[in-house]
Amino acid sequence: MVQLTLPKNSKITGNSKVHTAEKKDGGAYRTFKVYRYDPDTPENPRIDSYEIDVSNVSMVLDGLIKIKNEIDPSLAFRRSCREGVCGSCAFNINGANTLACTIGLDELGDGDITVYPLPHQPVVKDLVTDLSKFYEQHAYIEPYLKAKDDEPDDEWRQSQADREKLDGLYECILCACCSTSCPSYWWNGDKDGEDEYLGPAALLQAYRWLSDSRDQHTNERLDKLEDDFKLYRCHTIMNCAQVCPKHLNPAKAIVEIKKMMVSRPDGKAAK
Ligand code: SF4
Ligand code: SF4
Ligand code: FES
To answer: Tens of pLDDT along 34-69?
Structure first.
């Protein structure tokens, strides 16, 4: 039976700060309820409320930037591209992991907007989580071309049909929405060594390289996934596919890797 222990000071207390807006004619007001926590202080996390004029705010990220610029510069969150490309503005918004820069306020109904950090990751401050483990798991699958032949004079060639096999895989922006929404990853994703589930993002990337016609390390890549935890802790719960903001399907990629495992003659694949 899995035993879960919450870190000290993890309970949200009622010491919230409430920022109300001075209403103006023509304004449209909504309240953001945002998770605040600084582990360097003895204070427990709290949820602060920020009522803002959203007449010129389309996306949740625009709202957070407005709060930081106009009300509370101490609010910490990551963002960069504002275009759904860098993956840095992934938060839990109204209960679902997604990108703040691509989710519109109009997609979130009329009520308050809650913004929490990605679940089950250590919090560095407020909405900033420590994704070191997530990146380690990505590094583990060796996300680059590994060949055995001598390097060609010009380039590694690939047919159009082989290139198309990478569609639905290469678009991953490593936002971590999928892995941090996966219950199996919550239970098994933060252990060291053998007993660790790599999670949907790393496994989708693993399949991206297993599918690449130019890569010649299929056996070695499968060997690295062959234990009770790294791959086989996916139970097809499908949270990953539901939340992926790029509409990818990590669960399907995981199934395809499992198929490659069983089709290895004498336990080894063809290349
Ligand atoms: S598969 Fe989707 S949700 Fe998961 S890291 Fe990649 S882009 Fe993000
Ligand atoms: S399908 Fe697998 S990877 Fe996706 S959320 Fe479920 S257990 Fe996690
Ligand atoms: S800011 Fe880059 S994905 Fe949102």
So the answer is: 999 999 998 999 999 999 999 999 999 999 999 999
pLDDT tens digits, 68-98: 999 999 999 999 999 999 999 999 999 999 9
- Architecture of the domain whose range is 132-267: Orthogonal Bundle (1.10)
Token output for 222: 């499968």
Q: Which residues line ligand 3 (CB under 6 A)?
A: 79-82, 84-89, 99, 101
**Which ligand has the nearest atom to the CA of 181?**
2
DSSP summary character for residue 104: B
Question: What ligand has the least distance to the C-alpha of 231?
Answer: 2
The residue extents of the domains of the chain are 18-129, 132-267
Would the pTM count as exceeding 0.90? yes
Distance of alpha carbon 248 from the chain centroid = 12
CATH architecture of 18-129: Roll (3.10)
Residues near 231 by beta carbon (within 8 Å), at least 6 away in sequence: 198, 203, 225, 254, 257, 258, 261
